[in-house]
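Blackboard transcription, Thursday session:
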Amino acid sequence: MLSIKDLHASIQGKEILRGLSLEVKAGEVHAIMGPNGSGKSTLASVLTGRDLFEVTHGEITFEGQDIGEWAPEDRARAGIFLGFQYPIEIPGVSMTNFMRTALNETRKAQNLEPLSSKEFLQRMREKKELVEIDSKLTNRSVNEGFSGGEKKRNEIFQMAMLEPKLAILDETDSGLDIDALRIVANGVNRLKTPENATIVITHYQRLLDYIIPDFVHVLYEGRIVMSAGKELALELEEKGYDWIKKQVDNPLITL
Amino acid sequence: MEKDQDIILNEVTQSEYKYGFVTDIESDSIPKGLNEEVIRLISEKKNEPEWMLEFRLKAFAHWKTMKNPNWAMLKIPEIDYQDIVYYSAPKQKKQLNSLDEVDPELLDTFNKLGIPLEEQKLLTGVAVDAVMDSVSVKTTFKKNLADLGIIFCSFSEAVQEYPDLVKKYMGTVVPYRDNYFAALNSAVFSDGSFVYIPKGVRCPMELSTYFRINAANTGQFERTLIVADDDSYVSYLEGCTAPMRDENQLHAAIVEIIALENAEVKYSTVQNWYPGDKDGKGGIYNFVTKRGLCKGRNSKISWTQVETGSAITWKYPSCILKGDDSIAEFYSVAVTNNHQQADTGTKMIHLGKNTKSTIVSKGISAGKSNNSYRGLVRVAKNASNARNFSQCDSLLLGDQCGAHTFPYLEVDNSSAIVEHEATTSKIGEDQIFYCNQRGISTEDAIGLIVNGYAKEVINQLPMEFAVEAQKLLQISLEGSVG
Amino acid sequence: MDMMVEIIDTREDLKKEFIQQRTILDQAIPGFGYQKREQAFAHFLKLGIPSTRVEEFKYTPLEPLFNKEYHRSYTFDPISFDKDLLFNCDVPNLETQVEFVVNSWYYHPEHRLQVLSNGIILGSLAEAAKQYPELFQKHYTKYANPASDGLIALNTAFAQDGFFLYLPKNTVMDQALQLINMMMSDRNLMTQQRNLIILEDNSEANLLVCEHTMSNHDFLSNSVTEVYAGKNARLHLTKMQNENNDSSQLAAVFIHQEADSQVSTNTISLHGGFIYNRFDVALQGRGAHNDTFGLYLTDRNQHISNRTLIDHAVPDATSNQTFKGVLDDDAHGSFTGKILVRKDAQRTAAYQSNNNILLTDRAKMNTKPMLEIFADDVKCSHGATIGQLDSDALFYLRSRGISQKEARLLLMYAFTYEVIAAIPVEGLRLRVEELVSKRLRGELSRCNDCTNGCR
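(Written on the board underneath:)
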């Protein structure tokens, strides 16, 4: 589904991603872990087309198409969803208007008829239940005055509404208490199908207790330096990132 | 509680200006009055070349065509320009070869002001140019600086010794036509400081000029020119005091700064001219034109001022951001008490691309004073990606004073981001109570709170100045809550 | 302070007319005859039309407007007009009583003044002056001082009619009142409309004022509105400005508020060649509250100036000013706002903000938010910004599949929302929402049923 080859990206001349490669297939859950500043959030931004970053080398293909030059909305319409680490507040734009515009523009791009008001509201209702989001939240402006947990839940709600093929969840667990974490994780798990894939970006292992990954990758200094199954997350939790740093910086010391 | 505070307020606002003494020294002064002859006389006394006299005369001719400005928020009594002495110099031996030859009275004066001119007594790292009335008395550390190619001398000396540099830069940032007081200064300026930092040199010590008005009925019209060549750095400090006299005295200075490519100039002022007595009698009229030109790419000019003195202050240290990627900053604390009036702020003119300016202004009004911030941010059509942030806060102590904010934002370019914020507040009773409850007296509490309020600006000052500025704030305002 | 005023010299011209029209002006407003007008005219001669050298007009160049040739009409010339033309003023889902002022003259096919069952009086200003002299004299020219400004002096000297509204104590207008100010003429026209709105204690009204041009001539309207809000009175005023690109509208509103009164104004400027809106609010009673909101969507070579003064003259009053603007093409905008807190006006809370978005490098915005404060126990703040749409928000919308164009529209709409949301009458708010949304999409100026008469 997603194939990243030798990706280099920089911001204001400073290289953040330095040759990152990754393959994600339908039905898989990948976790990307790594210390602060390793490039995790940059990867999410680059995949979704944030123009702050410049891709200097490498290739991103999604379902066989090179999307490297695509606008953010075209990537979104192709089925890539980003759950933001810091969701943006947009006062004055109601959640309903926001979602209807997003959904119908995506449908238009897929040559589908826009949803009728009734269908749209029906879908809103279903998805709200699915992700256990309070109705009051969706009656307000986008993220305005939401608590940290409410914002994250709202991200998952939008994901449910848009039904992406690939969901990238950037530090979705940050700022969540244990109950909110469970609700968010449940939402993600319920939305999982054999046809879609998820990339979970996280600093801590605890989210992976709820969203079980098929693969865990460790990102360090802009590259994936280690990949393994879910047990790697536990090992990281135990030994800390210094362990990885030592290995990478000093390759002569082996396990 | 209220009553106590009123008493403290009265006590403090009547606290004396401790720099108000007069030095008993014979002066070489010219008669009062202003005309072409006076200007020729000043020029002659300073043994100036012909081009300098011509500059003065052109400025004077222009000044005569101008009208005394009328400013919205200032009440300025009419100034009789014929009743001012335009040149006064403390009499001393002509050539100074060593400090021993400086008149002991003068040395004593500067010692009393806390500015010892003996180099061994000076704080290391500060070179001083001491200016009394119309002339520079002494410049310290000249030799050490000269070794690095740095020129730091009186303006008069620069006219004699470095005429090419003076000719090249004087009047390029503040033309004599700029405003009424700039024209007046250009005609009659007496002395001031000149600084040139050569390419690639970081000036290793703070350069400082200390201005002192001593003689009666004398106006002070100094002129400062600072040129920082490519890749150079300098931090410059300015301090000023005057004796207590019942009549008002005029101070109309010009400061010009030019920063070339990658150069950085920091200019700090602690202005403590005599503000007049508690009934508003006497004090200095401080009408100053200060402007910096970020001429080269990536240049930076930063103004920091702590203004506590003067009866009337009118000054807007400004920056023209001409070089691409240039940066300008303005940090100001202005305190007014009793009958003082201040109208001060800055102008940031964005001309180059990717330029950035920051304005932080903290006004503090007490007594019956009026304190205004007036600032302009202009982004020209071709100045793409310009950024400005302005924060202008006012603190009122008592209900007899005024605090005003007049920002002007003029934007001609859609990629600009210009933001202005201002708040007005008073010191909360609860803040004072909180301090009282922890055993801090009301006076000290106010000192603490005001210093906290002004911290962002004070932090920009070099260490020695910051300490002085903090004390000054405390003295100006202790107990001023009503 | 010396009144340093630069004068644009249209005075000679107007002076001749003022003398020529003596008889007509003497009778135009009963109780405000030629002699009283002469005083105002003397102020005008002294002050003139303010130039950009006058601080308050620094960013409002009036010269070009007054240098054009205009016809001035001293009698009402009833032109036939089709009431159905006024479709774009209708407010669906909202019952309103509709009133018309045409070229500064109150117009109604049947009557000059109406007295409703609860004692509310509305209609022609000149007629009200005749029928209710005491009421009229008590308020007329009491809030707009001709000595203070050339434009007010000019209006006071020449004004002949306009709209009058009176609410007695404890009355509530059960319907919103819609006043349609129209300019229609077969030649260029200058008018001096004068309105007086009096709300006695505990009365309440909602007023919608629509400004329209109905033909494609150069119009210059210099209007003055005086508003008196008695104790605990409530007034909401929404203004919609939608005029052709050759029209100039100078509209000054003076509001006097007594204790516990609440007055709010929302001025939505959709179109207009040159617009100068002035709001002078005098908070003269404790507990009074004022909201002054404005939204301007300006493009082509249009000019918009908003000028405010909120004068906190007594303690315990509160005010809030919010002005937002989107400037496109070669548009010029300016905001000159002031909060004045007088000595002893303790416990004032006053807030002011002006936010602008520039869409092109040719558009230009000047803003001058001012605070003048003479009391210490106050909470005053202001903020002003000039910038672009937030790039983070833009990316967020696009990452959800919304196109760049649509995302920009959504954000612009969201930017304007704060002003629209403050309109208290729901039907009106929805209508304004729709118009603003159309305007942002560029549909308003293009739509087939437009009668703005742009050339």
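Lecturer's comment: Residues 404-421 of chain C form the longest helix (18 residues).
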